[in-house]
């Protein structure tokens, strides 16, 4: 059965996107990272938010545009109430996070469903649907933008560290979500 993983790279001050969703900063931090590279083969499906789906691609204008770390291709499920008609190949639109996780899990088989997008992750965490969180911390302060986690009024959530690793351009910390 698929596990649900929220993975993202963030600046040291906690932003995964700059102002207006700018992701161009990320291109400088995608360099050699064995953990990110090995994760690509472990992902069976993506669950992404509409803003991420339509958002700024750090690989825009290169042969890696539109691909996770420039290497992943497969089914993606987009959480939205405004689907694009017709959907791009390999893309399914879903209207709520629970059905999105269920559909992506069925497509992923025994691999990970990887969540991309802060709002989708927040919703999935609130519903107890996230199993693990992988954060790469880039040595950079963005100062403003989209926070990795923004949960005003949200409850505490305990995590268990599974691993920590260092790479030339980021430090990775992998957690398991502890459910009550």
Q: What does the model show?
A:
This protein has helices at 34-39, 50-54, 97-108, 118-126; strands at residues 3-11, 15-17, 43-49, 76-79, 91-94, 112-116, 132-138, 146-147, 159-167, 170-177. β3 (43-49), α2 (50-54) and β4 (76-79) form a beta-alpha-beta unit. The protein starts with a strand and ends with a strand. The mean pLDDT is 88. The chain has 180 residues and is an alpha/beta fold. It is globular, with a radius of gyration of 15 Å. It has an 8-stranded mixed beta sheet with strand order 5-4-3-6-1-7-10-9. A two-stranded antiparallel sheet has the order 2-8.
Write out the strand line-up for the largest beta sheet, numbering strands in chain order: 5-4-3-6-1-7-10-9
List segments where confidence is low: pLDDT < 50 over at least 5 consecutive residues.
none
Count of individual helical segments: 4
Which strand-content bin applies to the residues? 25-35%
Which range best describes the helical content: under 10%, 10-25%, 25-40%, 40-55%, 55-70% or over 70%? 10-25%
State the gist of this model:
This protein has helices at residues 34-39, 50-54, 97-108, 118-126, and strands at 3-11, 15-17, 43-49, 76-79, 91-94, 112-116, 132-138, 146-147, 159-167, 170-177. It has 180 residues and is α/β, with parallel strands linked by helices.
Main features:
two-stranded antiparallel ribbon, globular, single chain, alpha/beta, 180 residues
List the helices and strands and how they pair.
Blueprint: E1 3-11, E2 15-17, H1 34-39, E3 43-49, H2 50-54, E4 76-79, E5 91-94, H3 97-108, E6 112-116, H4 118-126, E7 132-138, E8 146-147, E9 159-167, E10 170-177
Parallel strand pairs: 1-6, 1-7, 3-4, 3-6, 4-5
Antiparallel strand pairs: 2-8, 7-10, 9-10
